[in-house]
Design a protein that fits this description.
6-stranded mixed sheet; 6 helices; alpha+beta; 4-stranded antiparallel sheet
Length: 210
């Protein structure tokens, strides 16, 4: 089903995930899992949909944020409540982890998904724009002055590798996907060649009680 989602979202040519990769990252022999997932099946045991999630340990409010990395329902099962049931499990997981926010991205024009998310209580996050930068093989060359002034530092937060660049504005990145507080930072964009993605950030701002 992940390949079907990749085809739908237009990155099938770059899709490299295998079953072995998922087992290694989701059920490692040592260390913490990099994600958790919910899978929906029909009465015969056939897969009908799935949701893949991970958590950001804390943000400004010192509470975790749950990120829905992927949510997909097979075409034959759409409109039958599979997506809503998966989202209910996602929200339950967010409450159990003490999350204050659930966040995900939606392709422009996917109005059917947007209707489901609005009915669930989600809304587009108009304060932020989704940005990204491809990671090149070579390391960037920084002058001594720029190294001192930009205060580049790296951290490990759980299983998520985070890079924070201090440029007198707040910048956050996880797994190569960047969120910039609107308006975009022109200086940072030009220096590091960031570009906006086509997805819109959506959020469920407060996890509700069951």
């Amino acid at each position: 089903m992940m390949r079907k989602l990749a085809a739908f979202e237009g990155y099938l040519g770059d899709f490299a995930v295998t079953e072995a990769d998922l087992l290694q990252r989701g059920f490692p022999e040592t260390g913490s899992p990099e994600f958790f997932a919910f899978v929906a099946t029909d009465a015969t045991g056939s897969l009908s949909g799935y949701a893949v999630c991970y958590t950001i340990p804390f943000t400004y409010d010192l509470r975790p944020t749950l990120v829905v990395k992927e949510l997909f329902v097979r075409e034959a099962y759409r409109g039958k409540g599979v997506g809503r049931r998966l989202l209910a499990e996602v929200e339950r997981a967010a409450r159990e982890r003490g999350c204050g926010l659930i966040k995900w991205a939606v392709l422009p024009g996917n109005e059917r998904a947007e209707r489901v998310y609005r009915a669930w209580g989600g809304e587009p996050d108009m304060q932020w724009r989704y940005w990204r930068r491809e990671v090149a093989g070579e390391e960037p060359t920084l002058s001594r002055r720029s190294t001192m002034s930009n205060a580049l530092c790296t951290l490990f937060l759980g299983s998520i590798f985070v890079v924070i660049v201090a440029l007198n504005e707040s910048v956050f990145a996880d797994e190569g996907m960047w969120l910039f507080n609107a308006p975009p930072l022109k200086q940072l964009k030009e220096r590091y060649h960031f570009e906006p993605t086509q997805k819109t950030v959506w959020v469920l701002r407060q996890t509700r009680e069951p």
